[in-house]
Design brief:
mainly alpha; 252 residues
């Protein structure tokens, strides 16, 4: 891949947009992955290279939510370990196998989320202040988180929606707190995935670092927006991003 000035500026802007989208909903990688591939990067290298920005975006966003007191940590261990196991398995599968199922997995996840947001929004978007459950109190949470981790380790694109479904749907966190925990979960399995991809020499570092600058800025501003926005605004943003994710998955 030849990183021209035009490509660098484009990656920076797409990273900015993806950082906002990923922090508030999910699906930002639907912008960055195709861009890297259009610029001449093979799919497996694009998938690995994109993870550097995702890692730094999640770190930035999680610290931002923590600063504003919106990151719940009392049940963090039980939430994290299923996503880590799933992320490791998913990254290994992505590194060694063809990803021909990705389109159908992504499209299915987006359609399911869009349907829930349209017909039963309270399932995946509880009201602010809703009493959250622990992983031990929810029979489905552990498996939902492990599935999200596997998917995130495998392809990343759209994993935010699956994590929100687990955190808001199974554990009943409101969207602000669910987004904060989503970033921590994504940070966890992205760290595992990055180790695999770096060890196999699949990260192209210069485009990764340029893209990361945009991701970091996007996450920073998205956290400020999330803290100040009305709950209904966050719900509509999530719904719109879900519909756009469906379109992106269809044309993936």
């Amino acid at each position: 891949m030849d990183l021209t000035i035009f490509n660098a500026v484009l990656l920076l802007l797409l990273g900015l947009a993806a950082g906002v989208i990923n922090t508030l909903a999910g699906g930002g990688s639907n912008l960055t992955l195709p861009a890297l591939m259009i610029m001449g990067m093979p799919a497996e290298l694009a998938n690995a290279t994109n993870r550097v920005g995702i890692f730094l975006q999640c770190l930035t966003g999680a610290l931002g939510f923590k600063k504003h007191g919106k990151l719940d940590t009392q049940d963090l261990g039980p939430i994290l370990w299923p996503t880590l196991i799933g992320g490791l398995v998913g990254a290994l599968v992505a590194s060694y196998a063809a990803a021909w199922l990705v389109k159908y997995l992504l499209l299915g996840a987006m359609l399911a989320m869009a349907s829930l947001m349209l017909f039963k929004p309270s399932v995946v978007a509880p009201d602010l202040g809703t009493q959250a459950k622990t992983v031990a109190e929810s029979s489905s949470a552990k498996w939902s988180l492990m599935l999200a981790g596997f998917y995130g380790g495998f392809v990343q694109a759209g994993v935010g929606f699956i994590l929100l479904a687990a955190l808001a749907g199974s554990l009943r966190y409101d969207l602000v707190r669910a987004n904060a925990l989503k970033l921590v979960c994504t940070l966890a399995f992205t760290s595992v995935a990055l180790v695999v991809f770096v060890a196999r020499g699949q990260v192209v570092w210069l485009p990764a670092l340029v893209l990361s600058l945009g991701y970091i800025a996007g996450a920073h501003y998205a956290v400020k927006f999330a803290i100040q926005a009305e709950a209904s605004t966050l719900k509509w943003f999530l719904f719109i991003m879900t519909l756009l994710g469906c379109i992106a998955a269809f044309w993936f």
